[in-house]
Amino acid sequence: MKHFPIFIALEGRSVVLSGGGEAALAKLRLLLKTEASLHVFSPEPASVIVSWAHEGRLVLHRRALIAGDIQGAALFYAADEDDVEDARTSAIAEAEGALVNIVDNLQDSQFITPAIVDRDPVTVAIGTEGAAPVLARAIKADLEERLPTSLGTLARIGKAFRKAVEVLPMGRKRRDFWADYYYSAGPRAMDQGGEVAVKDSLNTLLDKYQAAAEREGHVAFVGAGPGDPELLTLKARKALDEADVIIHDRLVTPEILELARREAVLINAGKEGFGPSMSQDDINALIVEHGLSGAQVVRLKGGDPTVFGRLDEEIEAVMAADLSWHVVPGITAASASVAAIGQSLTQRGRNSSVRFLTGHDMKGFADHDWKTLARTGEVAAIYMGKKSARFIQGRLIMHGADRTTPVTVIENATRADQRVLESTLETLPNDLVAAGISGPALTFYGLAPRAAQVALTNTQEQELA
Ligand code: SAH
């Protein structure tokens, strides 16, 4: 950052501008928004400048600027659109110890004037260090559209009310009050009855917040599903809408986090399979700490929180802290993955049970009832099964499983980059390596994708109907 943005107090201070043409006008239009005392030096000023002088909005000196003219000025603008004149203004400013801006000369300027979105007292300044004025204009246009014109009025009225709001305890409650005012109650009142209504709305809102009992913290353990935001439950959406703090794992996709309430604090507690991670104890402590502070905490877990999610440890920590909690189920990876290959988890005549296995547990590769699994027709959904593929293959074959048993791996189920890898028990470990599976992947032992269905033509569909 070559230029550091600051907001300079100009009330009662002098600002000097040399110039009387187009460049001078552009700067003066901005400067007239301030409370500075403006001095313009120009032998031939544009007529608008003359009328501004008549209106008392600036002091016009119909001559060139000379050294010692305005002492103690805060800023100088060299706006003569003439290199020699501009250099002269610049030298005078420098002798005064004031900062100078030379219009259209970034190199020799000590400060630049940003593009401004004005919702006084809310001001947005946009600068590109001269790199892309077009971009600055586009951003300005975008913000002009997005920020309601009433924002400045709301902020002004709100500022005068700050003292009154001190009756509310600091922190959450005050923040909620202001969020409610700026995003909801304030704009509504403005639309309905203008400034008077806005002032009334502040009093009504304050009464409401004073009467409301302090909200207690609460922890919702919410399933985020396999990644597609459309596979969130309505309850999960609601929890995201109400959350103050969202503590999520690495399986939760950015598209889902996008749906969080915009004031919510997002914390990534991502745990990597075998890699470095925040310890479970740290995660428990984090959930409890936020819950005790009175926050509505959403502990957001990929898939279903009750499947390989270490949910119980977190619930125990929350209960030990006497916090209330509830669980919102989600679609687990096995359900999402089996749908992706057009199969059922159970099927009459094939498998009347299905196992959810983990490839590894806290001790390393996990042991299971290999003997039963090795029987024909068994189906297992293997979570976290990439690294343990060779181990699982070895155990199953050792217990007599058919080497040609179908195995299907679904990577990134329901996401844009979903992939399906068809394999067999015999070739699984090599196929996994060859395919370069790097995203979360679910391995189905005993299931192949349903053979591609022949699409019916329209006429056939009509005949069937
Ligand atoms: N609670 C999660 C599982 C957590 S264990 C659930 O119910 O789905 C993490 C494992 O889940 C991953 O290693 C992978 O095997 C599986 N998984 C999670 N999301 C997945 C996805 N979108 N596609 C494929 N497998 C996924």
UniProtKB/TrEMBL annotation:
GO terms for biological process: cobalamin biosynthetic process; methylation; siroheme biosynthetic process. The active site is at D249, K271. Pfam families: CysG_dimeriser (PF10414), NAD_binding_7 (PF13241), TP_methylase (PF00590). It catalyses: precorrin-2 + NAD(+) = sirohydrochlorin + NADH + 2 H(+). It comes from the Bacteria. GO terms for molecular function: NAD binding; precorrin-2 dehydrogenase activity; sirohydrochlorin ferrochelatase activity; uroporphyrin-III C-methyltransferase activity. Keywords: Cobalamin biosynthesis, Lyase, Methyltransferase, Multifunctional enzyme, NAD, Oxidoreductase, Porphyrin biosynthesis, S-adenosyl-L-methionine, Transferase. Residues 150-206 form the Sirohaem synthase dimerisation domain. Residues 219-428 form the Tetrapyrrole methylase domain. Pathway: Porphyrin-containing compound metabolism; siroheme biosynthesis; precorrin-2 from uroporphyrinogen III: step 1/1; Porphyrin-containing compound metabolism; siroheme biosynthesis; sirohydrochlorin from precorrin-2: step 1/1. Belongs to the precorrin methyltransferase family. This is Siroheme synthase. The gene is cysG.
